[in-house]
Predict the 3D structure of the following.
Amino acid sequence: MPRLYYLSFWLLTCFAVQGQPRSAALSPAAGTAVTDTPPPRRFGRAAFQLALGELIPWTVDRYVRNVDYARISFRTIGHNLQPSSWTWDDDAFGTNQFAHPYHGSLYFSAFRSNGYTFWQSAPPTLAGSYVWETMAEKQYPSPNDFINTSFGGIVLGEMTYRLSNQIVNNRTRGFKRQISEVMALMVNPMNGFNRVLNGRWGKVDRNTPERDSTHVLAEFDLGARKFRADHHGRTGWYGHVRLSYGTPFENYRTPFSNISVNGEFGSDDSSKVNILFVYGSLAGWWLSKAERDPQLLTLSANYDYVHNEAFFYSGQSVKLNWLASFRINKYVQLTSGAGAGPVLLAAVPDPYLFKGRNYDYGAGGGMYGQFGLNLLHRLSYHLNYRGGWIRTINGNASHYVLQAVTSELAYRFWDGLALCSEFGYFHLRGDYQKYPAVTARYPYLRFSVRYTLDFN
């Protein structure tokens, strides 16, 4: 169901007023750190903010929007607490596959931004999802909502928490500082609000070790693409944002020390947001520590969201990845990787579902492979493949095969600026027991100008 998330959490600052703890500060005159202590854990505030994450959206649904599913009672709660009450729901694709993970990220961030670690913040996310499913709605609790809110919330929550901390440089002042604070608030509202409550908003202070040492690369593309869907070709503008946080070969035992985010948007009749891929490393093990050709095995959590005119898809998965870098000489460098693992839950379109939602829920497996070549630090080429096999759990008896191939060539003609061209092909086939097979294709060609920011 639609929920007014941002409105709800702007209201958090009106309610979550507690004492502001003392924090280590930089002497404005000397510019040196006084202390370097880990942030304290504030269980009371974290639990209170998670509870507000339940209460405020429900209040808006019930008394502002006056929707029927928010008319809960002791009878509906008692019924939903029974294990036999769980059933798959029929909400819209965007609601289930994006809104629920976003809501879960707020549960996660309530604890993460109050001093708790990644693993310590995960159980409250599950608890918040369970409470909402059983107590905040009259509709029966659904397993798809619980998985999307919990797993997706953890992935999006840690990603936005780390990126929001990277945006703000505590050593800066003035207008630039205020803009960075606002941007960080938009990326992770809970963390931004807690910066206000902790007295850190705009305060000259030392940065965390992660903020000062983590390498962040941001690429922004703007250009035109020609794509074909439903036997009709179209041309329109598009934008692409690619963020790389950390490197695979450093701090590899720390969850989400390496994050990759790919987002694409543009002129498309189906959705303005066409792609969102999130990769977060959970743990890593060395295969080779050689300086010229390091190789690492990692375990990752992944969130995928695709919505174009040909089809839509969303999946949450865990993968085992092989990552390698080979420096041939100072002018030539190769990168490669491959991975595979289970898809915990995926939503795949089904044209034969005539009532309720228009997609099936399923689980299966996914894999990918990638290759990169960099010449003279100017010319680069990347080839990527993604594949997945999904068997339906809820919906029409069926199975799906999803494949995507992209090939990109880029030339850096000026410091930070590059010309790029990419060919891509997405293919989805659904085989049904009672209906004819369905195939969706989405080939595209695009050209863009890329601007790169390297925060070293």
Observations:
- Residues 230 and 302 are 29 Å apart (CA to CA).
- The chain has two domains: 5-207, 214-455.
